[in-house]
Amino acid sequence: MKVACMAAGGVGGYFGARLQQAGHDVTFFARGRHLEALRTRGLTVESGEGNATLKVRAMQDPGEAGIADVVLFAVKLWDTDGAAAQIRPLVGPETVVIPFQNGVESIDRLRKVLPEKCVMGGSAYIATRIKSPGVIEHTGQMSRIQFGPVLDSQKEISKRFLAACREAKINAEIPGDIVRANWEKFVFLVGISSATAAARATVGVVRADPDLRWLLEQAMHETWRLARKRGVALPDDFVATRMKNVDGLHADMKASLLHDLENGGRLEAPWLCGAVARMSAEAGLDAPVNRAVFAALKPFVNGSQVKAS
């Protein structure tokens, strides 16, 4: 398959590399020092599932790449609208765009920029980051993607891409309801990101401290309650089950929100804890934990602390 990775960050870089290793035609998009490194030294993946250094096709302008079969859309949430406009030249009559982003609003956001028929749903479960220009680091043992059609016309390409992923030994699946699957990830991610970012601490520290563990669980519960209010059929014991999963995570794991906070970068908080607070208010619900975490992170959302006037 012809695959385009927008962009070559932790998620797009990792899964794009695995697809290229399996023989698929992959193009990576990047900018700045990361792009320069990809062009000169190639893409390096450091992972317990196997290290690799690949010579890759890397560029900045999607308009130079041609039509793709599948676009892995994995930019940070604040770049969604601009990046969606940039990839229009990649989208042909049969192309599908799969958002592997955090949050639960990507499908609707992409449909405002791209043809509705091309936008599928997706979720990625993996802890990755750009360790240095041209180098993707995968920590822990979690490495899984889910994707699926939101329209009947997308079913066949979904199956073809699933076969491509399995050729690449990627743990991939098509769930029965991708929208519900996205919310399942969202509940978990909001809890982990809110707790680790608020504490500036790893999952191991959070789950071992009673107060931080309570914060994590309540952040999940508020998100689960919002999902139920919006008609997403998450089971009654969903949060309890996810808390058991938290106990099995690598103790050193951090959510990407905390990585960005520590590095002084922009934060996805408006679309995570902030989105739970916003959507809960719109639904007539209260979400005090997520609202408080978002309030504490707001001075850092744009990558630098707001100075007092």
Can you characterise this structure?
It is a single chain. The protein is an alpha/beta fold and 309 residues long. It folds into two domains: 2-176, Rossmann fold; 180-300, N-(1-d-carboxylethyl)-l-norvaline Dehydrogenase, domain 2. It is built from twelve helices and ten strands. It has a five-stranded parallel β-sheet with strand order 5-2-1-6-7. Strands 3, 4, 8, 9 and 10 form a five-stranded mixed β-sheet that branches. Strand 8 and strand 9 (135-148) form a beta hairpin. Helix 6 packs parallel to helix 10 (256-262), helix 8 crosses helix 11 and helix 11 (273-282) crosses helix 12. The termini are far apart. 43% of the residues are buried.
What's the topology here?
Elements: E1 2-6, H1 10-21, E2 25-29, H2 32-41, E3 43-46, E4 52-54, E5 57-59, E6 70-73, H3 80-86, E7 96-99, H4 106-111, E8 121-132, E9 135-148, H5 155-167, E10 172-173, H6 178-199, H7 203-208, H8 210-229, H9 238-247, H10 256-262, H11 273-282, H12 288-297
Parallel strand pairs: 1-2, 1-6, 2-5, 3-9, 6-7, 9-10
Antiparallel strand pairs: 3-4, 8-9
Helix pairs in contact: 6-8, 6-10, 6-12, 8-9, 8-11, 11-12
Question: Which key terms come to mind for this protein?
Answer:
five-stranded mixed β-sheet, 43% helix, 2 domains, N-(1-d-carboxylethyl)-l-norvaline Dehydrogenase, domain 2, 309 residues, alpha/beta, 18% strand, five-stranded parallel β-sheet, Rossmann fold
CATH architecture identity of the largest domain: 3-Layer(aba) Sandwich
Percent of sequence in beta strands: 15-25%
CATH fold call of the largest domain: Rossmann fold
In this structure, how is the largest beta sheet organized? 5 strands, parallel
Helix content: 40-55%
Shape: globular
Please, what is the CATH homologous superfamily of the largest domain?
NAD(P)-binding Rossmann-like Domain
Q: Identify the strand order in the major beta sheet.
A: 5-2-1-6-7
- SSE arrangement, N to C: EHEHEEEEHEHEEHEHHHHHHH
Number of helices: 12
Quick check: average pLDDT?
A: 95
Q: How many strand units?
A: 10
- CATH class membership of the largest domain: Alpha Beta
Q: List low-pLDDT spans.
A: none
The radius of gyration computed from the alpha-carbon positions, rounded to a whole number of angstroms, is: 19 Å
Could you give the distance between the termini? Answer: 54 Å
Overall domain count? 2
